[in-house]
Every structure is written in C-alpha cells, then in structure tokens.
Amino acid sequence: MNETVEREFTIRSELGLHARPAGEFAVMAGRFESEISVGNGREWVDGRSVLSLLSLAAGRGVELRIRATGADADEAVAVLGALLERSHAEIERSTAG
C-alpha cells in the first residue's frame, strides 16, 4: 500500500542543515523505498539529494516538512525527522570515530 505521510520538524543543530547532516539525511533517505521530499514552505526538494537539501538554506530553528510516499512512509518520516531534530553535539557524536 502506498501511503503519503507528511510532518513538520524543527532544525535543532546550532549550525543548521549544513553539509554533514544533509549528507547523512540523503543517505538515510536512500534506504527507504518511499519517495522522500523536504519542503520549507516555498519549495520542495528531493530528500536524496545533498545539493537540493542544502539549497533550502535551513538554519537553526527553521521548520521543514518531510513528505514520504510509499509502503514505509511512516517509518521514513519518523527516522528522517529525528535526524533533523538532533543537536549539533548529537550529530558530532554520531559521525565521530
């Protein structure tokens, strides 16, 4: 069954959605079967494209919407939303080592 799920999340990282978390987001989005889009109220971009995600210029406190359409849409939105809502310290810990 192809369902569409859409929810809003707030960027918590002090550095916003910069290259490292955008790359991690795109890689994680690629693990889901669902089609993933991310929007800022003015435009929607492909959630699997780092450059597209960076074009949103999403700083700390910006609210982004994640929309997923597919069999695993609910899980995709929950997991990807959690990535957006991590703090900078949490991002650093997850990529260290």
Arithmetic mean pLDDT: 91
- Class, according to the CATH hierarchy? Alpha Beta
Structural class: alpha+beta
CA-to-CA gap between the ends? Answer: 39 Å
Second CATH tier, the architecture: 2-Layer Sandwich
Largest sheet: 4 strands, antiparallel
Helix content, binned percent: 25-40%
Unreliable stretches covering 5 or more consecutive residues: none
Output the strand order for the largest sheet.
1-4-2-3
SS summary, helix count? 4
Overall domain count: 1
Q: The CATH topology, please?
A: Histidine-containing Protein, Chain: A
- Fourth-level CATH superfamily: HPr-like
- The counted number of beta strands is 4
Oligomer: single chain
Q: What is the radius of gyration computed over CA atoms, rounded to a whole number of angstroms?
A: 12 Å
Helix-strand pattern: EHEEHEHH
Shape: globular
% residues in beta strands: 15-25%
Word description of this protein:
This protein is of the alpha+beta class. It has a single domain (3-95), classed as HPr-like (Histidine-containing Protein, Chain: A, 2-Layer Sandwich). The chain has 4 helices and 4 strands, in the order E-H-E-E-H-E-H-H. The chain has helices at residues 19-29, 50-54, 73-84, 88-95; strands spanning 3-10, 35-39, 44-46, 63-70. Strands 1-4-2-3 form a 4-stranded antiparallel β-sheet, covered by helices on one side. A hairpin with a 4-residue loop joins strand 2 and strand 3. Helix 1 runs antiparallel to helix 3 (73-84). The protein is globular.
